[in-house]
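Morning. Coffee machine broken again, so started the prediction first thing and wrote up yesterday's gels while waiting. Chain of 141 residues, entered below exactly as on the submission form.
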Amino acid sequence: MAKPSTWSPLVLALLSLAACAEPAAPPARPLGPTGAREALHAGYWQGAMGGTMVDFRVDRVLPGEVDVRISGNVINPPPKALQPPGYQSYFYDRPKVCTRRPDGRTFDCPHYADMHIDNGLLCGSYVLDSRVFQPCFQPVQ
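Came back before lunch.
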């Protein structure tokens, strides 16, 4: 290898730039679910489902149950003049105790089934009357 004093100015300039370059960022996590089921843990997730913004909080994960709180707001409520008497653009479900499945990575609640964490998202299915949604709620920091 040649002595540093015999290297060309271009090589020295490139080496200087490389030494100052920022380290490469870690690869970005995919934005959506990957199909993996991660260990359940407490947390707060939020996302749109139908016309409602849903807040889904997992307060506690125990061996046979998961304690959750679910609330939400209608994203685009009708104007006040068109709302029927007693209309509420929000809902608040009192805390629920949901059943943790034997696999330990999923749980079921009334209307919500197969709830699991996938790539940091809280995913599952929601059934109300004849409508079925497949939500994947984003984590809230």
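The beta strands are 43-49, 52-61, 65-74, 90-92, 96-100, 106-108, 112-118, 121-128, 131-133, 136-139. Going to sketch it on the whiteboard this afternoon.
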